[in-house]
Design goal:
The chain has about 425 residues and is of the alpha+beta class. It contains 11 helices and 15 strands. It has a 5-stranded mixed β-barrel. The longest helix is centred in the last third of the chain and has 53 residues.
């Protein structure tokens, strides 16, 4: 069976041997994925069996199961729509659903849950694939229509209902938008019931998805349900450089992770002393240029505009020096024994010649007899080569001495002739 993945739904579409449309869940391919840590524990069943059903991207909802069938995580079901029938995947079952309701702030008391109608049939899945294929072209066309009407809005996503009777248009806008005319045009263009839903920049990033600067999936598309307010103060309390390009996420807003450790840094800052004036020493004044909040280390420099020389001090040492300065005295030196650096060790010159043999990696022969024969043959070959070298040297010496003797005899004869004259 061939498989065609659809990441927005987290499932794989295919056709069986009988020619019927089918769909299978892809584990780990969903946004807002949930790990059921209670699946191996026997839990009491609730009176009303509630399931969480996932639709496109991050849209989820709770549905009651009155069919008498048991569904498991990943089953594709047909549920009640408004109006009509919608198709989704079961994302959470059992007692974990009720825990999810409490976590997201959903109150089931007095709420009327829509119902799960049946397990999705081949006809439902086939129709579902047809409307999914129209979503991208519908989004592009709707953007063109909104631009022609002069509306200050951006349509970021379109989601069709499983039976194609309704389409949800997700848009972003800074202010109020009068889209009554837009709804009429969209209805005439696509012949579906139109629902306009305004979302924020973070919700749009969660629906689209992506990889953050940390290398992991965006938090807004993996686990965040509610977005809290993030201010630049969260970056200041952590001593993060206020660079808008580094602090902004893919949505253009401040990163949600700035709030994760802000409380921890704020609590750690309370234990640090306030340094409103430089520390005074005999050799000059020292200014605070850097603080490691979590380790409780403060760095001081003799030049408040330069970090070329930084002296680390612990919180206790800073308090001690401040107490001395309050009395109108100056400390002898700005130093902390906690950060004392050991003196450098003088290098030693060692003679390593001859410590290891250059033939230590040679393969040793296991047979002693063959090694002995090899040594004898080597000796005999060495003797022969030695005799040849001796004979060659003798020949060379004789060749050199003969010309020398002839030269001496001719010289003596010339001397005798001169004497006679």
């Amino acid at each position: 069976m061939s498989c065609k993945k659809n990441i927005s739904r987290g499932c794989c579409f295919g056709i069986t041997e009988e020619g019927k449309a089918t769909a299978q869940n892809i584990a780990g391919a969903h946004k807002m994925e949930v790990f059921d840590y209670l699946q191996s524990y026997p839990l009491p069943q609730r009176e009303a069996e509630i399931y969480e059903v996932r639709f496109k991207n991050t849209r989820k909802s709770f549905y009651a199961n009155n069919t008498g069938q048991r569904f498991v995580k990943g089953d594709i079901v047909a549920v009640e729509g408004t109006p009509g029938v919608d198709i989704g995947l079961v994302s959470m079952v059992s007692d974990l659903v009720w825990r999810q309701m409490r976590r997201t702030g959903f109150r089931p008391e007095g709420a009327e849950f829509k119902k799960i109608l049946r397990r999705a049939t081949a006809t439902d899945i086939e129709r579902w694939q047809e409307v999914i294929a129209c979503e991208h072209s519908t989004m592009i066309r709707s953007r063109q229509i909104s631009a022609s009407l002069g509306l200050e809005m951006k349509i970021g996503d379109v989601e069709y209902q499983g039976d194609g009777m309704k389409a949800i248009f997700y848009y972003i806008a800074d202010g109020r938008v009068d889209f009554r005319e837009l709804i009429k045009v969209l209805f005439e263009q696509f012949r579906v019931r139109v629902e306009m839903k305004q979302i924020g920049a973070r919700q749009e990033a969660g629906r689209i998805g992506g990889i953050s600067a940390c290398g992991r999936e965006l938090c807004c598309s993996s686990w965040i349900n509610h977005f809290s307010t993030i201010g630049i103060g969260a970056a200041r309390v952590q001593d993060i450089s206020p660079n808008p390009q580094k602090l902004a996420g893919q949505c253009g807003k401040l990163k949600c992770c700035l709030n994760y450790e802000a409380d921890l840094y704020a609590e750690a800052r309370r234990s640090l002393p306030r340094v409103q004036s430089p520390l005074e020493a005999i050799d000059g004044s020292y200014y605070l240029v850097k603080t490691d909040i979590l380790s409780g280390t403060m760095y001081f420099s003799p030049d408040k505009f330069s970090c070329s020389i930084m002296i680390p001090l612990s919180v206790a040492k800073v308090r001690e020096i401040q107490e001395v300065n309050r009395r109108g005295e100056k400390v002898e030196r700005i130093e902390d024994s906690r950060f004392a650096v050991a003196p450098p060790v003088e290098p030693q010159i060692l003679n390593v010649v001859g410590e290891e043999s250059i033939t230590r990696f040679d393969r040793k022969k296991a047979d002693g007899a063959s090694r002995g024969r090899g040594d004898n043959e080597g000796n005999r070959q060495g003797d022969r080569s030695g005799d040849r070298r001796a004979r060659n040297n003798g020949n060379r010496n004789r060749q050199r001495s003969a010309p020398t003797g002839q030269t001496n005899a001719s010289g003596a004869k010339q001397a005798k002739d001169v004497a006679k004259k």
